[in-house]
Amino acid sequence: MGGGGFSDDDDNGLLDDHLLSLVSSRSPKVCFVPTASGDADSYVARFLAAFPSSRADTSVLRLFVREPVDLRTHVLAQDIVYVGGGNTANLLAVWRVHGLDEVLAEAVQAGVILAGLSAGMNCWFEGSVTDSFGPTLQALPDGLGLLPGSACPHYDGEAERRPTYLDLIGSGRLPGGYAADDGCALVFRDGVLDEAVASRSSAGAFRVTQEGDRAVEHRLPVRLLG
């Protein structure tokens, strides 16, 4: 998700509903990973409020205060791993220290759905645009690489996201990739984009490629949910 879901105060719930619909179970197992926010209690509380027991069988995987859970066993038992927003660089560093990066790579091969927004979108790709290092957006060419290319969330939600992403791809500092507006989600199956869906009619998705010394946007078809 470029932005949206329960993290967005203005969201209508359609993106989260769609995520749950990808699982056949009436009570999908959803594990929230709030690493990018430093395991913020307020963020965890919002997740739990948005996913009551009537909607999903939830758990929270905290890494700053490590709980007595075997990461591999727990993650592989989930239907969905839902990664929250925050600092992408910190998220990747903490995951690698704990070995969660390797567990997630195994999980996706086992059929676990990996999802998230903002930093939780960035992390799956080879690289991304991030504000991890301060207010100035920068390239982060150090993602997990579970999806090819680069990512840019909040494409319409933050004024500098689009021009920065186009500059980074045009100059070759990031490989071509995908951008998603707030309220838009990209659905990949087996590493290939299957479709883009949105919770609002104006939310767009783009494939951005390098052509010569410039970046070119290719607007993708988006299916409106609801």
Contiguous helical run count: 7
The CATH topology is given as Rossmann fold
**Gap from first CA to last CA:** 16 Å
Summed over residues and divided by their number, the pLDDT gives a mean of: 96
For the record, the CATH architecture stands as: 3-Layer(aba) Sandwich
Specify the CATH homologous superfamily: Class I glutamine amidotransferase (GATase) domain
How do the helices and strands follow one another from N- to C-terminus? HEHEHEHHEHEEEHEEEEEE
In helices, the fraction of residues equals 25-40%
Q: What does this 3D model show about the protein?
A:
45% of the residues are buried. The protein has a single domain (5-224), classed as Rossmann fold (3-Layer(aba) Sandwich), CATH 3.40.50.880. The strands form three sheets. It has a six-stranded mixed β-sheet with strand order 6-5-7-8-11-12. A four-stranded parallel β-sheet has the order 2-1-3-4, sandwiched between helices. The two termini are 16 Å apart. With 226 residues, it is α/β, with parallel strands linked by helices. The protein contains seven helices and 13 strands. 26% of the residues lie in helices and 29% in strands.
